[in-house]
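Box 3.1. Reading complex inputs
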Amino acid sequence: MTGMDAILHGGLQGYLVVALLLFAIGLASVLLRRTLLLQFMGVELMLNAANVALLAFARSRGGDLQGTVFYLFIIAVAACEAAVGLALIIGLYRHRDTTDSDRAASLKQ
Amino acid sequence: MFLAFALITLLGALGMLLQKNIIVAGLCMVASFFGVAGLFVLLANPVAAALQIIVYTGAILVLVLFVIMMLNSHEEEPAETSRPIQRWVSVILSLALAVGAVKLVLASKGLQQLAEKGAAVPPAVTLQGVGAVLFADHLLGFEVAGLMLLAAMVGAVALTKRNL
């Protein structure tokens, strides 16, 4: 399968292209949006892009189970990150009354 | 099928990037994560697809939506200072990353060989197999992940509670 064909019919390259575009969109939302909650969602999107690439490679190695196990660990880390990150956003909102990352540029009041 | 799920994923993500209302952006993320789950099914990995829906859409995004509603910040606040240079630089950076990476993937000979070698659809991943590998080879990692989740939970409670 050549490049374009793989994208249309779901070869390894097709999944990698989807993963890379997903990562780029996540990066763009971290860089362009000012609300911390949206930046946080962008980080989740980038983690997901990594997962897609990981499982695509695991499949092309004949359904390697190690890939799925690694995916489980990534999900555990993402859940921890979500809990702590959202707690920090709530803490910031209590102090500053804002979820705008520009307004929280300095940590001191 | 692949194209449909890929489009759902990417359009959901784009919707999140461009949406003004934060709750609608969160719901676009849900669509995107469902698309990713569909991609996992096509990768002969129903275990990962189920986990994706349960953990990402069921737990993480619901948590995010709860926080959005709790903080009552449905709209993005108006910018304090406009930073046009930074915005253009980040747009160009993201676009360059996307275009460059896609070009690299499409031009890569090694990836093409890898794709041809693993073109046959493998047997679907089963939960039984994943469990066996997880507890046979990665027991320590599993325990550490559990401890880390506990630490994150305690940390989140400590950070959000007003007076302990």
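In summary: The two ends of chain A are 58 Å apart (CA to CA).
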